[in-house]
Amino acid sequence: MKQDVLVHRTFKRPGRGLAGAVALAALLAAAAPALAQQQSPILDALVESGELPPVAERLPTNPLVVEPVDSVGTYGGTWRSALRGGLDNAWIARTVAYDGLVRYDREWKEIIPNLAESWEVSEDAKTYTFKLREGLKWNNGKPFTTADIEFAVQLHKEPTYVGPGGFLRNPNNPVELEVVDETTFKFIFEKPNGVLMDELASVNGLTIVSLSKDYCGQFYPPINPKAAEEAKAAGFDTWEAMMLNRCAWATETIRWANPDLPFMNAWMVKEPLTGSATRVTFERNPYYWKVDTEGNQLPYIDNLEMRVSDSVEELTLLALNGQIDFQDRHISTVANQPLFFDGQEAGDYRMGEEIQSSSNTMVIQFNLNHIDAKRRELFQNKDFRIGISHAIDRAEIIDVVFTGQGEPFQVAPRPESPFYNETYAKQYTEFDPALAAQHLEAAGLVKGADGMYTFADGSPLVVTIDTIASLRPEWPDMLELIQLQLEAAGIKLEINNIDRTLYYDKRPIGDYDAQVWGGDGGLDVVQEPRYYMANSPESVWAFRWQAWFNGTTPDIAEEPAPWAKQQMDLYNQLRGEGDPAKRTDLMKQILTIGQENFPVIGVSLPGNTYYIAKNNMRNIPQTMFQAYLFPTPAPYDPFQWYFAAE
Amino acid sequence: MLRFVTGRLIAMVLTMWAVSFVAFAIIQLPPGDYLTTYVATLSANGDRVDPAAIDALRQQYGFGEPYLVQYWKWVSGIVLRGDFGQSFEWKAPVTSLIWGRLGNSILLEGLAVVVMWLVALPIGIYAAVRKYSLGDYLATIGGFIGLAIPNFFFALILMYLSFVWFGETIGGLFSPGMENARWSVERIWDFLSHAWAPILVLSTAGTAELIRILRANLLDELKKPYVTTARAKGLSEMRAILKYPVRVALNPLVSTIGWLLPALVSSSVIVSVVLNLPTAGPLLLRSLTSQDMYLAGAIIMLLGILTVIGTLISDLILAWIDPRIRYGSK
């Protein structure tokens, strides 16, 4: 289904990418003006009274034409959904905020134009030239130009201003911005950057297009010399604090607390998300710059309303009661599935399918960099990990914890991925106590009188696994079964349920046996290879090796084993490589090394999850991919969803 | 009396100072700080933060400084400027976040206390006077059930029943669109139509406790000779019971008023989460897990102050209600 996902979308060849984009842009430019442009009836009065300019003047010269999923829609309605507590910015990112320079297409195969109508990548992958649509406007009617991009870049280069910044702040590959004219700008990197387009198309790419110079400049001392004093007068310690509050970037929660902040999204804040808000509402952006194939200005739906609730139970009941029009986040749990299935008729909603990007329900990461030499040696021994893997009865876990959904799986690319490799996915997954014993003994463990393994020197072996129940309640359930299974195999396991902060604090110190986490990187193999190689601080199994690789925390860095080092070399080559075929090949080599050395242990492939949508809500695909970087459902263009009249 | 109150006020200031010191220490006890949580969240989401930027933030937030310095900055801000500091997570001044929610807490829990007393007093008196009657047994059984059901579970059951029976989702304190409206008859009605559930949940356990305490105390009092004397002198039964024995029996209840407010706030955290009430509880819970220390500190501090004020009130009421207690110079 998802052939050549990464090949195509990640690494467009300069010539082809540009040609494709230009061709599309030309097509759009030719199509758009010929059609009568229409707008939501709620805007008619405003235009007649002169408060708003006519729709033709509000749209850019070549608005983005969006092909509806099923049919051209009708205007109106309120989409009701819910936020879990006041700081659930991810749901807003997924419904409202996903409008970067570029975006992913609905197949998650290609990167397509968005605010930028075209782009060009230099042969050496160091210079990226973007061309913005002409005549784009913020929701307050002010033009959106390269000046706004320049402002965002400048702000994120301030050492005292802290945002994530991504590639803007990467010390290993600094970037310069060159503004050519009002619509054209270039990013010029010191070293090749092959992954920029993916970063910009993912949910992390919103930072640089989210700050209006016209509005946010008033909080910035180089533009407004009084900014620092004004911040103090408003109750903030520094201008940076006030900037973060009034002018938050990308998808920060506090961004939705300020209705004055200009947006480029389909809906804009009406009732803000403050500390005591119990709902947030959005209304249509009259300056939204997308149209459907008949020239109707999008979005179709006029208003959004999000219940702010700390209570998952309340959200579940709201959904069952038909008071939610579309939602997957928080409520679509395995436990709720039969409940929602039975309630479809009464609640007048339907269920759709979501394929998760994650490769595993739980990844067991033994600490290959343990500070205790004896344990480090044991955990680095591949036989030990193979022995543990064979001692786990995955079928039992799938039956008991996941109501039979899923299949035994290692931490490897998912079947839908072009990188899928059955050997990698299935190796050592069969439950085989004899084989397990054989490998554990090969790892140098010795069975004591009580039937439990000890170290070769006779000292007792107890493995402690850290987990966070509050994050994923199923982890402790799975671990309790694994605990019994390993005990039967002769390995004593302790489950250590701790707070998330402590979890992270332990990593640099290196004094933990094992930690568990979810199986990221099942589909986004190239962007998130944390379990195939030690590339990020989330590679908990080799925290000190990744420190060596990333160079950000030199005090704990340790030279990796030769195979891990070889993977890092390959990944560095991949980052600088322009040719998609070669990049795929490099990634395959990295995966092969990962497969041979088997650094982490997986349990099972997560079953598909689901969303629920009101029966009269249209243009939603029946099946979607569900990922963080591909912020479902945003790539399925919620602005072209509509309520059918019944 | 004046001297007593003055002395108590001075002691209150010292207590509050101690409370603030301990509150701030408690928040800093867990490993890491807000930035650890923040980086963890970003990192789990696949975003990276430049460690240099984090160091800069640590400096800016003053995380590297010794405890006493941090504490002094915080507490002096509160005392001198009424500034509780910034909430890291909300990127906003703490004062802009807490008052509304604290107001909701006090309103809701105040109502729960009133309901609790209104229900518990008559039942408690009745149960004592008509010892071992059918009513007494019913009150006892009802009370024990109320005491035994965990509050959050009771809340869940209420939500479920109201969904199944009435097709209504109870949750929150207002209907959509009513939250930001001005107080009016309509809004009060809307509030009551939502607030009955949390009030019922919050008051059940407390009611049971009050009934038992009152019944036990009153039983002791009723046997005493002064009650017999009062009856012998021809006082009506009603008067004979209410004039003195009930007042005396109320003593232990009144002297714990001071604990009521903070106990209600803290015991209602889970109920508030389950029923999605915009009170201080969920905000406190959330700020503790994310280590948003100034926000958490402010809420804990205010709970402490509530306790101290509550204790003063209970002492004053006690002095007024119990004839045996005499304060003052002579």
TrEMBL record, chain A:
Q: Which Pfam families match?
A: SBP_bac_5 (PF00496)
Q: Does the keyword Cell inner membrane apply?
A: no
Q: Where is the signal peptide?
A: 1-36
The family database entries (CDD domains) matched by this protein are listed as:
PBP2_NikA_DppA_OppA_like_4
Where is it located?
A: Periplasm
Q: Where is the major localization of this protein?
A: periplasm
Q: Does this UniProt record's set of keywords contain Lipid metabolism?
A: no
Location of the Solute-binding protein family domain? 110-526
What are the protein's UniProt keywords? Signal
Family matches, as InterPro entries: Peptide/Ni-bd, SBP_5, SBP_5_CS, SBP_5_dom
The similarity comment for this entry is: Belongs to the bacterial solute-binding protein 5 family.
**Annotated protein name in UniProt:** ABC transporter substrate-binding protein
Q: Which source organism does the UniProt entry give?
A: Devosia neptuniae
Taxonomic path: Bacteria, Pseudomonadati, Pseudomonadota, Alphaproteobacteria, Hyphomicrobiales
From TrEMBL, chain B:
Keyword terms of this UniProt record: Cell membrane, Membrane, Transmembrane, Transmembrane helix, Transport
Q: What is its main location?
A: membrane
Q: How does it sit in the membrane?
A: Multi-pass membrane protein
Where is this protein localized, as stated in its record? Cell membrane
This protein is called what? ABC transporter permease
The membrane-spanning stretches of this chain are 9-29, 106-129, 141-166, 195-214, 248-275, 295-321
Q: Which domain of life is it from?
A: Bacteria
Extract the InterPro entries matched here.
BPD_transp_1_N, MetI-like, MetI-like_sf
| Domain ABC transmembrane type-1, first and last residues per copy | 102-318
Organism of provenance: Devosia neptuniae
